[in-house]
Structure prediction request, 271 residues.
Amino acid sequence: MTSPLLIGHMRPMHQFPPRRIVCLTEETVETMYLLGEQDRIVGVSGYAVRPARVRREKPRVSAFISADVPKILALEPDLVLTFSDLQAEIVAELIRAGIAVHAFNQRDIAGILAMIRTVGALIGAPAPADRLAAQYEQRLAAVAAAARGKPRPRVYFEEWDDPLIGGIGWVSELIEIAGGEDVFASLRVCKAAKDRILDPDAVRAAAPDVILASWCGKKVVAEKIRQRPGWSNIPAVRDNRIVEIKSPLILQPGPAALTDGLDAIVAALRS
Prediction:
């Protein structure tokens, strides 16, 4: 039974395009700003940092796996944009309150491009969204072309340090586009982090030339990586090629990963 608290906030999305939108992850926020549709955003995730002005322009209504549902309802959104099964409980509560919700679940580059086009369709701006996605497709192709014929360093991407977790699908794909060889490319089909847990000895045996690390919002400490038992002879450790990529650039499946995130990988592989 719906809570009496929620009944008064039931507001189905009768208006198209929606005028009041809440984004519970950062990639849809950035997409809407890039489309010039930021005025429709009435609430964002606390992790939204791109563009920088979003932090002073929009009220924060959620973390990632938690949200202030009464605050969201008070904003009277026409549409709420969410991401992944980790927000399923938030989605369920909003749906029970009569709110229109779209849940994205992109885990690869094709999914990111589809997300951009879908956001455009949902907000009544399909043509600008298609142009934006096409620009990224052209950019990815250009970066891949520039890397052809060059040596391909072997790369290990570390998404978390305890336990060790390898890179998700879009990260693995970006490593290859940038001109590297993901030593654990077979993990790219694994959507859940628990399915990408690695044995430290497997990393040692893979002998990567470059270690890229982005510890999901926590500062990477390269010295801790160097001090792992048996890792001193890994080429990346021996040659001091341990590079941190900030989480907002690479771990959000949206425009940031296809631009600044990819550029950071390219720079790391060329250094």
The first strand starts at residue 21 and ends at 23. The chain has two domains: 4-105, 151-270. The radius of gyration is 20 Å.
